[in-house]
Design goal:
The chain is about 35% helix and about 10% strand. The chain is mainly α. The radius of gyration is 20 Å and the shape is globular.
């Protein structure tokens, strides 16, 4: 348990790790007071805290996500929605012996927890301040220039995916078109700037313009989507619960037949659009791309569901 770890830990990195991990546990349990207390303690102890999974390209284990995002190249089986294109590839080739690390605990999460709690308490002004502070944390994270020429953004059909910085992207048919979300990847000497820890398209002006709790929640969940990309967090935010592997279920006496962990769970508002979650319309003549569903807006519209937005 994280609480037990905190009673035993003496090194600050271990203390902050357990504190931030417990904040996440409290968050998903809907315990706002405890989550915020731990989140604030983590920020105070280590304002730029980051803990990553390291991989070993020589001796293993290798990075499966780097393989899917970058190493397989034109075998484009895992590509982000166009509104997240500017964050890809978060995991990329460094050298024959060094692979990209994957963050699994970082202080950005603490700010997001605090802001969501403030919104649940109708403290829009406080949440705007917290999110603005978060921008400073994200801006201080490293950005590298990656040669991604081999990535054609083709989806097995040339021209079917935006691969041009002139393209404007809308989160849905009712959302405004935005620039700067898609990168030009092909061409001699062309590289793309990629945040290796956290990145976001949100800026201070967007935060300042927030007028309602729901607007702020939608923006917050966009920031969660962007900041945690390629870290295995998005499906949980969407209320999706996957099953444990059959091998584990059969071997573990603590998992009886019919246990909830052996049955997948999708909220009805996600299940109804599950075949369209990555759908979009790309107009190559107009350089516009319109995503079918703004899932962040859908999450906020269903914020009282017990499967999502745990503070609501």
């Amino acid at each position: 348990e994280f609480t037990t770890a905190l009673t035993l830990a003496t090194e600050q990195v271990t203390i902050t790790t357990a504190t931030l991990a417990r904040a996440r546990a409290h968050y998903w349990a809907g315990s706002a007071t405890n989550a915020v207390n731990d989140a604030q303690a983590a920020i105070t102890a280590s304002p730029s805290f980051l803990l990553t999974v390291q991989f070993d390209a020589t001796n293993a284990p290798n990075s499966t996500i780097q393989n899917a995002l970058f190493d397989r190249g034109t075998f484009d089986d895992l590509q982000p929605l166009p509104r997240l294109d500017f964050l890809d590839p978060k995991n990329y080739f460094i050298s024959a012996s060094v692979e990209s690390a994957t963050p699994f605990l970082k202080i950005e999460e603490a700010h997001l927890i605090i802001a969501e709690s403030q919104l649940a308490q109708n403290n829009l002004a406080g949440a705007k301040t917290t999110l603005t502070n978060l921008l400073g944390v994200v801006a201080a994270r490293p950005v590298v220039n990656v040669n991604d020429n081999v990535e054609g953004r083709t989806e097995a059909a040339p021209g079917s995916r935006p691969n041009n910085s002139a393209v404007q992207v809308a989160a849905s048919a009712t959302d405004a078109l935005r620039t700067g979300l898609v990168r030009t990847r092909n061409g001699a000497g062309v590289t793309v700037p990629v945040p290796t820890v956290s990145g976001t398209s949100v800026n201070a002006a967007m935060i300042n313009a927030l007028a309602t709790e729901d607007e702020a929640l939608e923006l917050l969940y966009l920031m969660r989507q962007e900041i945690f990309i390629a870290e295995g967090r998005r499906m949980t935010d969407m209320g999706i619960r996957l099953v444990v592997s059959e091998v584990e279920a059969l071997a573990n006496s603590n998992i009886p037949a019919g246990d909830p962990s052996t049955t997948s769970s999708l909220p009805s508002f996600i299940d109804g659009i599950k075949t369209e979650l990555d759908a979009f319309e790309y107009n190559t003549n107009a350089n516009t791309c319109v995503i079918k569903h703004n899932v962040n807006k859908i999450l906020v519209q269903n914020k009282t569901s017990p499967t999502v937005l745990p503070f609501h």
